[in-house]
Amino acid sequence: FKQKTAYEISLGLVGSEMCIRDRLYIIPSESMSPTIRVQDRVLVVKDDITNLSYEIGDIVVFYNPLTHSQITYLDRLIDSFKIGPFNQNEEASDRAYIKRIVGLPGDEIVIDTLGNVYRNNELLTFKGIFNETFANQEKYNIPNNSYFLLGDNRSNSQDSRIFGHVPVENLIGKAIYVVYPYENIQKLDND
Fold first, then answer.
1. For 17, which of 76, 143, 154, 189 is 20 to 30 Å away at the CA?
2. Global pTM value
């Protein structure tokens, strides 16, 4: 009896830790196709609990810097127990988005007319991403404590080209796995 009780308590503690540290999101749009598809479920390790470090190529969930309201730590902790979709039935200020990091604090990002992305004068490439052509070359300087984020489906993504850099406090966490549907299960690498 004692061994079974200890096992149940251990499972409960592990489950509780995962609920606080991780969250499942449902993808509502094509902005990250082909990497992540509409209706995929993505497991996200949250930054408010684990103090993550972010790198080029990481796929992150964040609040839009143009519409995000101030959310307290208690609000984020309560929100961490939800399993929910992006954007659906959420206030505009609290919508979560998912994109790929292409610029770190202090970086210079240039997107040329062919859609090529340069970070500090070095071409960035990621598997399976097709560029969108532009009429003009654009240059972005990323301030300290901020990131530059792009969707993998560049022609169908509202990202840092539209709303600018994303402050670190707007980052919710790092997407690490597509967990559903089962035929799409994959680890999300940063390449």
1. 189
2. 0.77
